[in-house]
Amino acid sequence: MAAAAKARLLTIGTVCGMLKDDFPDISISKIRYLEDQGLLAPRRTQGGYRLFSEEDVERLETILRLQRDEFLPLRVIREELASPAARERKRRRSLDVDEGELDFDELCERAGIDVRLGRELEDFGLLTSHNEGGQKRYSELEADIAAACGRLAQYGIAPRHLRPFRTAADREAGLIEQVVGPALRARNPERRRAGTEDLEALGSLAAELSQMLSWRALRRLAST
After folding, report:
1. CA 125 to CA 103: how far, in whole Å?
2. Are strands 10-11 and 50-52 parallel, antiparallel or unpaired?
3. Alpha carbon of 174 to those of 65, 167, 170, 203: distances in Å?
4. What pLDDT sits at residue 46?
5. Would you state the pLDDT for residue 223?
6. In CA terms, which of 61, 101, 135, 167 is 20 to 30 Å from 223?
7. In a 3-state reduction of DSSP, which class is residue 138?
8. Confidence of residue 4 (pLDDT cuts 50, 70, 90)
9. In what order do the strands lie in the sheet with 10-11?
10. For residue 24, what are the contacts with CB-CB under 8 A and spacing of at least 6?
């Protein structure tokens, strides 16, 4: 993992070996390809050997995770990495409770959107907040959502058009809750732990299915 890199500069072979457990399909040629596509820029020795810093390894992990977990094409990943939100923080994709850390202005700044758009997203239920001391606080996941909505807005897709995404997500969550809900509410810690693991697995499978169904529909559009 990236934390193991510390302050050392690592060769491409070492980096490949470090990430092999989490990303079994990683290879030296794949890392070179990502560099050729302008997604990575490791240092070079006078002899032309690549040297990766901790930041380089973290960036590579992010790219690989976006490919594997969110099925994003390289063009979209490049935009994601260049976004203000990505520069400010590491992406969070965890089922752990993520309490509010940002106020509204901070959320808009991290997401790279204006206040007006942020208000619209909240009005249409695309952003949710946590009340802390009488003040609205937002998690970094909400900043991720706002950033994605901001990029869609650049194509003329307004918040009111995005409600079906929220509805579909709630329906998916409701279906999964029917399966794992009893385990999550169990008194037995082991059963609750197993329920959480099943929740993560089902969430990943549901996201994968949704992505594939979307691409199939878009392919139909492209072929017309």
Report:
1. 17
2. antiparallel
3. 26, 10, 6, 11
4. 83
5. 82
6. 167
7. strand
8. very low
9. 10-11, 50-52, 43-44
10. none
